[in-house]
Design brief:
By secondary structure, the chain is of the alpha+beta class. Helix content is 37%, strand content 17%. The chain has helices at residues 4-13, 20-32, 38-47, 54-66, 135-142; strands spanning 36-37, 70-74, 80-84, 92-96, 102-105, 129-132. The structure holds zinc ion (3 copies). One zinc ion (ZN) binds next to helix 5.
Amino acid sequence: MTDLAELEQFLTGKGCKLTRHRRVILQALLDLAGWSSAREIHTYVLARNHKVNFSTIYRNLDALTSIGLLCRVERADAISYYTLNQASGHHHHLICKSCHRISELEFCPLTQMDPQTLQNFTEVECKFDLYGFCRDCQEKAQEPNAD
Ligand SMILES: [Zn+2]
Ligand SMILES: [Zn+2]
Ligand SMILES: [Zn+2]
């Protein structure tokens, strides 16, 4: 999704409204591209003279994440980052512990589990992200003169 009209269409499809606050937040995510923290989004919004308090930003980011419009990951430093969900379906993320790069993981462990493993739980939701060191960071670590 690359513009507000498309995002609004998605919201309407989910029975949600594009409120003034949501419009401001989604525009910020479009402008900032990539992943941003709630703080970064708040700073950006304030700089553009929109009076929105931090808890409103946070609450709306949560709501937009729960309907699948945004992806949220928690970095190794425990800060949550948000981005517009560009994936077509359910997915997970790989997060670098060193440079904090985040990539999509087209794999879901839930699909590999049978009802017995899941102890016959139904409507199981899966929250699952993986943390490691990306290729670039591995290569940097191997350079002889790396400090
Ligand atoms: Zn994602
Ligand atoms: Zn890395
Ligand atoms: Zn999953």
